[in-house]
Amino acid sequence: MLNDAFETAGSGYAATWPMVAPVLSIDHIWLSKHFRVVRCEHRTSLYSDHRAVVVDLGWR
Fold first, then answer.
1. Is the N or the C terminus of the chain less surrounded, counting Cβ atoms within 10 Å?
2. How far apart are CA 16 and CA 20, in angstroms?
3. What is the pLDDT of residues 40-49, one digit of tens each?
4. What number is the average pLDDT over the span 24-36?
């Protein structure tokens, strides 16, 4: 079973697309039980029409 990093340790608005006014949460990082999510956040980007998903990880 995989876990969504944002659901595990994210906070705030989860939508990632489109960048100007995000309404859909279509970008995810899925992790196995071998990883611990320390922090997950969505950031703006000048190079994409999606908000970037950034995750800090640790080993379990």
1. N
2. 10
3. 999 998 899 9
4. 97
For the chain, what is the domain count?
Answer: 1
Residue 55 class from Cβ within 10 Å (0-12 exposed, 13-18 middle, 19+ buried)? middle
* Residues whose CB falls within 8 Å of the CB of residue 37, separated by 6 or more in sequence, listed in order: 3, 5, 8, 9, 31, 55, 56, 57
Q: Residue holding tokens 């990883």?
A: 35
Rounded CA-CA distance 25/16 in Å is 5
Neighbour tally for 21: CB within 10 Å: 7
> How far is the C-alpha of 4 from the C-alpha of 47, rounded, in Å?
24
**Domain, as residue range, for 37:** 3-59
